[in-house]
Each structure stands twice: as structure tokens, then as C-alpha cells.
Design goal:
Elements (H helix, E strand, L loop, with lengths): L4 E12 L11 H16 L8 E6 L5 H4 L5 H17 L4 E5 L22 E11 L3 H15 L4 H11 L3 E8 H14 L6 H9 L5 E5 L3 E6 L4 E5 L3 H14 L6 H6 L8 H17 L4 E4 L5 E3 L4 E5 L16 E7 L3 E9 L2 E7 L5 H10 L4 E6 L3 E2 L4 E2 L7
Parallel strand pairs: 2-3, 8-9, 12-15
Antiparallel strand pairs: 1-4, 1-5, 2-4, 6-7, 7-8, 10-11, 11-14, 12-13, 13-14, 16-17
Helix pairs in contact: 1-5
């Protein structure tokens, strides 16, 4: 039977007491008990005259797992319900999607990690109703659910029994409600400027978008390529960009401006690094694919997940003594941690920038294999003040 239907994506949000002993997937009996309790709470928000199927996923997820490109968890629930709607028609009922031996019937519903990172969890749900009634019901839920959709003790008790999670509050929410809450949380942390990227990727459709974010981080989204392209800045490129900008305005950078170029973390390149890392952490949490746009002077070492740039050479640049073996400078900021490495080997120097925290391990393994003779740590960026370029401590005068 083919019947046009309308999908309304909602969730049950719970503020929980943090614990490591949590069951992320619910077996079929526990999922059914949870679904029936939530259906009882939701029934107060739905018109009695409409035929609705409530599909409840027996999985405990965190908000960022629901808010991913194309909403894969919701797509999975809708596809699993489709054969039932096709065979039985649209009759008011509750459908629970549970796990067998901790395995959900669709990989998109399988939790990506066991540990919970925050104090809010969600149970995903989809209301399936008639195509004609759906938009009106959805608009009603958008207006009223956040204010009046409290979750009562039976559903919270089901959460405690099935997932081993005690909750202090429960609320029925629409996906738009959840997005608004996420933005408020980022705003409280001073990071709301980055939310524009997440919201655009989730809602913008196939329109391309460019972003200018805190810390002068820039990036572009193209839905047809399904990734966010981030403009990566090495220190040399960042400094050159700033001095070129001053030159375009007919100004020569002053000594004070040159000094300000390397300051971190509160200004200068450190501010860009902080912004880049914040953006990266946020998009990774929301499973947004990303790539890098690199300066012409740099290349990407995909195996080591690092950007490599030859060190700047000029008359101001010293050269290491011929007998000097492989030397590594670690540019480390006390707040931001590792910013870059400078490797001097066979009289040549290269700067290496980790593109993500996962890059540090592979690079350290590579350094071990190179039998580095000397490793020194620079407090912040070691740079040549005359050329405003990164350098090794071997070259420092």
C-alpha cells in the first residue's frame, strides 16, 4: 500500500547524572517500554483526530550525534519504519527499534563511542503522519513542545532501568529546539560564532557558503563536495598575509606590529590556531567531513596528517654547522600546547604543523625512526624577528 506520509523529527532529551556505567543500546523489550512511556507523554501534544505512528530508537545518543549532515539517525528510523507503513497502512501505533546482542538493526543507529561526554542525552523519535496533516502538527509542536512537553516519571524510570541512567529532568523537543539549545550552550562558552557553520551545513541545502569566523579563520562549504574546506595558515603564511595587507594600504609594518605577529594565545597567530582547533573539534563532533586549502608554499602529508612547509631562507638566516645531526624544535605554547615542529636534517629545515590532535602520534613515531640527536622546546614560537618567519632554535641568534 502506498500512502504519502510526513515525517516529524523529534527527541526525548534528558538531563542526566553523569556515570560511566551506561548502556547505550536498549534491547527490544526495554526499547518497547521506553517507547510506550514516551508515547504517553507525547499523546498530550498531538490532535486526537490524526493517525500517527511514533517510531522510537532504542539508543542513547548525545545531541551532536543527532545533528549531523543529512540527519543519518533519523533517516535510519524512517527507513526501518517504511516497510511497516507500506504493509499495514497509517494507523496510530508505537514502533520501537531495539538492539539484539547490543547491535542495532542499522549501523547509523549504533553509538560511535561508549563514554558519554556531557550531561544531556537524547532518545531519537520520528512521528509519521498523513501528508496533509503533517505540516500543521509539526508547526504546533514547534510552538508548544519546548514549553509543555515535559517527560513524566514513567519514561524517566524506563531510562534508569534500561540504560542505567538517572535523570534530573526530561523534555520532549523538536530538532529545531535542540539546535537552539546547542547554540545557547556555545554562546555561554563564548563560542557561538562557530555555530553558523554547523547550522548552515545542516539546513542550507545545496547552496555554497563561505565563512569568516573568530580568529580570522575562513572556510567554505559546498554540499556537492560534501565537505568543509578550511583555509590552513602556517605561521609564515599568516605573517606574510598580515604584512601584505598593511602594504596594500600603503603602510609599512612597524616594529611593534612585527612583534605582535607572533604573540599567542591571546592575539596574533595563536588566536588563529585557537579558532582553527575550536572549529575542528566542533565539526568533528558533528561528523562533518573536512579538507584543507593550503598555501602555495606548503603540502599535506596525508599519512602523517601534517602540513609541511620548507623553512624560509634569506641573508638573515643562519645555517647549521656541517656536522650537526638531525635536530627538532618543538614550538609549544603554555596554553595552546604544540603549535608546530621545525626539523633540521642534512642542512635543510622544514616546518611541520599537525592538522589535528591525531597527527601528533604518527609524527612522533616518525621522529623516533629518524634518530633525532637533539630535541629542544621553544617557549612559544621561535621566529626570526627580521623576516618574521618561523625558525629552528639551531638558527636562533
Amino acid at each position: 500500500m502506498h500512502q504519502p506520509v510526513y515525517h516529524i523529527r523529534i527527541l526525548a532529551g534528558f538531563e542526566i547524572v553523569p556515570t560511566d556505567d551506561v548502556r547505550r543500546t536498549l534491547d527490544r523489550s526495554h526499547a518497547q517500554a521506553m517507547a510506550e512511556a514516551l508515547a504517553s507523554d507525547l499523546a498530550k501534544q498531538l490532535p486526537e483526530t490524526s493517525e500517527t505512528v511514533l517510531v522510537v530508537g532504542g539508543v542513547i545518543v548525545e545531541p551532536d550525534q543527532l545533528l549531523q549532515p543529512h540527519f543519518p539517525i533519523y533517516q535510519a528510523l524512517e527507513q526501518l519504519a517504511k516497510p511497516v507503513i507500506r504493509d499495514q497502512g497509517l494507523h496510530s501505533s508505537v514502533m520501537a527499534i531495539g538492539a539484539h546482542a547490543n547491535q542495532m538493526p542499522d549501523d547509523r543507529l549504533q553509538p560511535s563511542r561508549h563514554t558519554l561526554m556531557g550531561q544531556m542525552i537524547a532518545v531519537p523519535m520520528v512521528i509519521i503522519t498523513d501528508m496533509d496533516d503533517g505540516p500543521t502538527i509539526e508547526q504546533s509542536l514547534e510552538t508548544a513542545l519546548f514549553e509543555s512537553g515535559s517527560i513524566n516519571p514513567p519514561a524517566r524510570a524506563a531510562l534508569a532501568e534500561s540504560a542505567r541512567l538517572d535523570s534530573v529532568h526530561g523534555q520532549l523537543l523538536t530538532v529545531n529546539d535542540l539546535m537552539a539549545l546547542q547554540r545557547v550552550q556555545l554562546d555561554a562558552a563564548g563560542l557561538s560564532g562557530f555555530w553558523e557553520v554547523i547550522e548552515t551545513v545542516l539546513l542550507a541545502g545545496d547552496e555554497p557558503h563561505s565563512f569568516e569566523l573568530p580568529g580570522h579563520v575562513t572556510c567554505q562549504w559546498r554540499d556537492d563536495q560534501a565537505h568543509l574546506a578550511i583555509d590552513f595558515m602556517t605561521f609564515d603564511h599568516w605573517a606574510r598575509t598580515h604584512t601584505d595587507s598593511a602594504a596594500r594600504h600603503g603602510q609599512a609594518p612597524t616594529a611593534a606590529e612585527h612583534r605582535s605577529l607572533h604573540q599567542a594565545p591571546d592575539s596574533g597567530y595563536g588566536l588563529w590556531v585557537r579558532g582553527y582547533r575550536t572549529l575542528l573539534a566542533l565539526i568533528q563532533n558533528h561528523a562533518i567531513a573536512w579538507t584543507l586549502n593550503l598555501p602555495d608554499s606548503a603540502v599535506l602529508d596525508e599519512r602523517h596528517q601534517s602540513v609541511i612547509e620548507p623553512a624560509h631562507t634569506s641573508g638573515h638566516q643562519a645555517t647549521p654547522p656541517p656536522h650537526h645531526g638531525p635536530h627538532l624544535t618543538e614550538h609549544v605554547d603554555p596554553t595552546l600546547g604544540l603549535l608546530a615542529w621545525t626539523l633540521v636534517e642534512e642542512g635543510r629545515a622544514h616546518h611541520l604543523y599537525p592538522t589535528s590532535p591525531e597527527a601528533i602520534g604518527p609524527m612522533q613515531t616518525d621522529f623516533d625512526q629518524r634518530q633525532i640527536q637533539s630535541i629542544e622546546r621553544s617557549d612559544g614560537l621561535c621566529y626570526n624577528p627580521q623576516t618574521v618567519t618561523l625558525q629552528s632554535l639551531v638558527f636562533k641568534q
